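Predicting holo structure, adenosine-5'-triphosphate bound.
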Amino acid sequence: MSALDSATVWHRFRGELRKAVNESTWHIWLERMGFREVDGTTIVLEAPDDVRSWAQTRFGRVLTACAETVLGPGATVRIADPEETPPETPAVAVPRVQAPASQQLNPRLTFDQFVIGESNRLAHAAALAVAETPGLAYNPLFICGPPGLGKTHLLHSIANYVHEHGGGMTARYTTAEAFTDHFVAAIQGGDMEGFKAQYRGVDVLLVDDVQFLAQKAKTEQEFFHTFNVLHQAGAQLVLTSDRPPRDLDALEDRLRERFEAGLVCDVRPADRATRLVILRKRVAQDDVGEVDPAALDLIAERVDANIRALEGALIRVVAFGSLTGRPVTAELAAEVLAGLYPELSKKKAAPTIKEIQEGACEAFGVSMEALLSASRTQPAAFARQVAMYVARELTGATLPTIGRAFGNRNHTTVLHACRRTTERMASDREAYEAVHNLLRSLGGN
Ligand SMILES: Nc1ncnc2c1ncn2[C@@H]1O[C@H](COP(=O)(O)OP(=O)(O)OP(=O)(O)O)[C@@H](O)[C@H]1O
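Done. Tokens:
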């Protein structure tokens, strides 16, 4: 089986599985499974002990059904012990074809789920237009704006739309960081042809956070060629960045000019009415139980920084309600949010990852050395997970960037830490308080 085949099988299997289970089952359990290989008609996954036994007993049938949808009747799934191939030493047995998490599409990020308001109307319309007629509407489409305002959501929506309605057209989502890592690995592994085939053979290429291409001369050059080959072939390019092309000072002029040649549109912070619709939609979809509409009004009113923070606030309010057995009312929401968000928004700039790490060391009484180490002993391991979660929420840094700042750990470790922290907050009062206090202390600085 070729490298691309394995990646496609994994991609489709994951998409099927994600559609087959509800959001919390996915995040708490199944998302933690990694891909190892396709062995004949068996998809081999790997997962830690707790997930492995749970997934096998509770979800064996669903896993098999998803495998059969992808590979045909008789396909099976085996879940292996990751200890045989530690996830952070991929050189041994994890196949080089494994798509970085950043390239895996989230089937739930679709146009249907995207709430349109004044702040994102143009970006949404342009994204939908390129999804419907790739290469013909605006090319490239460049979407820019601060973190957490839906740029990644729009890229995934385009890719999901093309996969579903594109009549066999192919779309590839990546981040500039994953592109860079992949390029470096291809050079080291002497597989530039394989690398080029993966990026230059698609109908739609979606690249998130292109500001990270700056000052990586070789990658930038390779990206420039990829861009030109695709553009000349009539393929669609969609790019996002935290700022408009003209402000990407560190990029070469020729690339900046290419970025500006199509349509540049921005996403801005959502207004209150849009924030409220987003919250209502999340409550309905995630099946979080009874939430008083006045509580949503209050969260929409208070949390205006970005949509990621808005969703984080909703999770915390609901978690607090369930931990204390209290109904989720405006009063409870006010209690949870008290002091936190106003202080955060007053603060001149978001805290840096370093400041978050220092805050976590102080809050949990661990040394910086322990926090950045690979040690799994407590309290360092929990402090590390919480600090990663807070960094994801407050800094807008990407998963690979956060991973690097925590002793060069990979992005799946960060993702796992964020999920684990959310999970613990919902079930453990002490964990909840720890996260809340750390967020508060950083906001109050
Ligand atoms: N208009 C919207 N409707 C519904 N959900 C939204 C909307 N905008 C953002 N979100 C949700 O907010 C969260 C953050 O959005 P997203 O990751 O797309 O932001 P981003 O602009 O790409 O940020 P970053 O630059 O940090 O990657 C996601 O869960 C996304 O689904």
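The chain has three domains: 3-98, 121-266, 272-444.
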